[in-house]
TrEMBL record:
It is a multi-pass membrane protein. GO terms for cellular component: plasma membrane. The chain crosses the membrane at residues 30-49, 82-103, 108-129, 157-176, 197-223, 243-268, 280-303. This is Inner-membrane translocator. PANTHER family: ABC TRANSPORTER ATP-BINDING PROTEIN, HIGH-AFFINITY BRANCHED-CHAIN AMINO ACID TRANSPORT SYSTEM PERMEASE. Coiled coil: none annotated. Pfam families: BPD_transp_2 (PF02653). Residues 1-20 form the signal peptide. GO terms for molecular function: branched-chain amino acid transmembrane transporter activity. It is found in: Cell membrane.
Length: 312
């Protein structure tokens, strides 16, 4: 691997070490939440930014994996490899079911079908009280562990979330550069020509959705252990819409912009929300300004400013 490719992971690990050493428990858990939700937004970016597949059911992939991990932890214990395996399997399975339902449609119909599929998952989580806890959700989960080591403290959770985010970013970059990623972009830009070349649009998009589902499932599997709680809002369509807002703010198609948009949104929700109930107005204003001034997102704007600063 070249030094240029190693630079970003090494910088990320160095930043994680500095933050873990200097931050308190609340900040570390908050940052872990940003990284996990940001990973889910990153998986959505693969579909929207490179496939043109706008989904209002993406929270179903993330939240169903969170529920599966939380339920399994109550019966099997919260072993990290087991939780990750269950989350990835659940996210992939739900993505497969969703793909069979929605990917034969297009444009507005795909959006509506994804919304309806996500609401079916929400109905199951909300009304199957004996398993999911219903409206109360699941609380009091055991802390994560890896063999004899307990990983339930804030610093461990932050490091795990950071490693997952870096790994997912690497997987996303590899996916975009792979033949499947190139084909996915082709189905967005020239679907008729791709069919003429022998590609099946459903097959390309279905496999991309499986990759996104596995990535969102991995993030969802760790999410319940940050606050030791998971509720039906984690699969609701409003979270899917929020993920789209985060992605637009950060930058559709930028990959790392998914984390930037998530951080900005959650920071406004947490810190501005503690000051006023109208924090959503601030989010709306930022969203409108981003679309008007930096339509490619904050990540692209940041890179342009950086390049201008380097120009003599």
């Amino acid at each position: 691997m070249s030094l240029s490719r190693l630079a970003l992971p090494m910088a990320g690990l160095a930043a994680m070490a500095a933050v873990a050493a200097l931050s308190g428990d609340f900040q570390l858990r908050f940052l872990a939440e940003i990284l996990l939700i940001g990973t889910a937004v990153l998986s959505l970016d693969l579909l929207i930014g490179f496939g043109g597949l706008i989904s209002l059911g993406h929270a179903a992939l993330f939240g169903s994996a969170a529920y599966a991990a939380a339920i399994a932890a109550q019966h099997l214990g919260a072993s990290l490899p087991v939780m990750l395996g269950i989350g990835i399997a659940m996210g992939t399975a739900v993505a497969a079911l969703m793909g069979l339902v929605i990917l034969r449609a297009g444009s507005l119909f795909l959006l509506i079908l994804a919304l309806l599929f996500g609401q079916i998952v929400w109905e199951i989580c909300f009304h199957w009280r004996e398993v999911t806890g219903g409206a109360d959700g699941l609380r009091g989960l055991p802390p994560l562990s890896l063999g004899p080591w307990a990983l339930g403290d804030a610093r461990s959770l932050f490091v795990l979330a950071g490693l997952l985010a870096l790994g997912s970013l690497g997987v996303a970059r590899s996916f975009v550069a792979s033949p499947l990623g190139r084909a996915l972009i082709g189905t967005r830009e020239q679907p008729i020509r791709m069919q003429a070349l022998g590609y099946t649009l459903f097959s390309v998009r279905f496999r991309a959705l499986l990759v996104a589902g596995a990535m969102a499932g991995a993030a969802g599997s760790l999410y319940p252990f940050v606050n030791l709680y998971v509720g039906p809002q984690s699969v609701h369509w409003t979270l899917s819409a929020t993920m789209i807002i985060m992605l637009v703010i950060g930058g559709v198609g930028s990959l790392w912009g998914a984390f930037l948009g998530t951080a900005v949104y959650l920071a406004l929700q947490t810190y501005v929300g503690a000051w006023t109930d109208r924090w959503q107005l601030c989010v709306g204003l930022l969203f409108v300004l981003t679309v008007l001034v930096m339509p490619q997102g904050l990540a692209s704007g940041f890179l342009r400013l950086t390049r201008k600063g380097r120009t003599p």
